Amino acid sequence: MPSPALRRALTDPGEPHLRPLPDDVSALLEELSAPPRLAAHLRAVHDVACSLADWMEKRHPDVVFDREAALFGAAVHDIGKTIHREELSGPGSAHEQAGYELLVSQGVDANRARFARTHAAWGTDVGVEDLLVSVADKVWKAKRVTDLEQLLVDRLTVASGQPSWEVFLALDDLLDRIAADADGRLAFQASHPVDG
């Protein structure tokens, strides 16, 4: 039975309104007795990833990406913090490999579990889905990472055939709009306890 605090983190609408996590992810977080603050964080990043995916499908319909995998990845990217709870309020990267291993041990396919590792270690060899999750994990709190965003621009430019500057300006505009609601998402996350 999930704690009332975890249940609230999974179901509170939030301000701005946050989409719910996929049912299978919510069930897994409940089974693992995840910290409420982690559930709130995952909801915030998942919601931003949904907005990014919607924009990509509308603005770049020729870009082939696995929307379901990307949204799953955003919903579980920090799940290793159920093990390394100290990383909920402090720095650390031990949760990345631990999250991957935890997901695989729970029967999640390794290809979908990879987001626990790739969300913070992006590079040129990751897919559009991985970049989408990484960007969402930064911009939800209004953090902009030029190198990361440029990797996504480069992928979208190649796939769409649009000029790089045009892709950059459109993505920059979207990320500015998403970042404008960061205070609400940060307040939502902070309103849920680390333990509960």
Distinctive features:
196 residues, mainly alpha, Hypothetical protein af1432, 11 helices, 63% helix, globular
Largest sheet: none
**Sequence stretches where pLDDT stays below 50 over 5 or more residues:** none
Q: State the name of the first-level CATH class.
A: Mainly Alpha
- The helix fraction, in percent, is 55-70%
Q: What is the molecular shape?
A: globular
Radius of gyration (CA) equals: 16 Å
What structural class do the secondary elements suggest?
Answer: mainly alpha
Gross CATH architecture: Orthogonal Bundle
Distance between the termini: 13 Å
CATH topology: Hypothetical protein af1432
The ordered H/E elements are HHHHHHHHHHH
- DSSP strand tally: 0
Layout of strands and helices, then pairs:
Elements: H1 4-11, H2 23-31, H3 36-59, H4 67-76, H5 94-105, H6 110-113, H7 115-118, H8 128-139, H9 146-160, H10 164-179, H11 182-190
Helix pairs in contact: 1-3, 3-4, 3-8, 3-11, 4-8, 8-9, 9-10
Can you walk me through this structure?
The structure is a single chain. With 196 residues, the chain is an all-alpha fold. It has one domain: Hypothetical protein af1432. It is 63% helix and 0% strand. It has helices at 4-11, 23-31, 36-59, 67-76, 94-105, 110-113, 115-118, 128-139, 146-160, 164-179, 182-190. The longest helix has 24 residues, at 36-59. It is globular. This is Phosphohydrolase. InterPro entries: HD_domain. Pfam families: HD (PF01966).
